[in-house]
């Protein structure tokens, strides 16, 4: 199991993230902190520090920033993995977080599907890293780093990345959708919804099937591929 420490100054956010983690296989929450100081105490001196593999770290807290926490961790040679979870969109903060070792930077608010995707990528990275020992080959290094990146086909002209993300999240959450259902759920036209779903199918992230059992022509449904 991957031990997760939640760090956020908002109680409702901590509760939400705890429920998100509990829905994932292979992860368990081993601690919760409402501020930067308590996070550092838990990570550096806390009794459960050895169990913490991953920190879901807020960037803005009353007693210090997530960047402060990262700097102190690295200064003490604490190599725990970190995913930044924040509403801060400032590019300089993103660069600093990545420079200090954040593996992902997830902007609030986000759907469970987006959260699940990032956590799945992280779990895949840990699995690849655990399988590699000694002097790694270039292919093994590429596989480890590639596990942290989503595999998507380039967004073709005429499709908006933001809408593609919404359709992706809806399909992943539902598991199976038709263009009609996606259109109704997201406020798109059926033609537009079909274009985005077809793009996901062409990129290997969804598979097509025919849905029978309703009057008229069979309907194409799209199933998310984990």
TrEMBL record:
Main location: cytoplasm
Phosphoprotein recorded as keyword: yes
Response regulatory domain: residues covered: 3-123
Residues with PTM 4-aspartylphosphate: 58
Localization in the cell: Cytoplasm
Protein keywords: Activator, Cytoplasm, DNA-binding, Phosphoprotein, Transcription, Transcription regulation, Two-component regulatory system
UniProt xrefs under PROSITE patterns: RESPONSE_REGULATORY
Highest taxon in the source lineage: Bacteria
Record has DNA-binding as a keyword: yes
Region Disordered, annotated ranges: 204-226
PANTHER family for the chain: TRANSCRIPTIONAL REGULATORY PROTEIN DCUR-RELATED, TRANSCRIPTIONAL REGULATORY PROTEIN DPIA
Protein name according to UniProt: Transcriptional regulatory protein
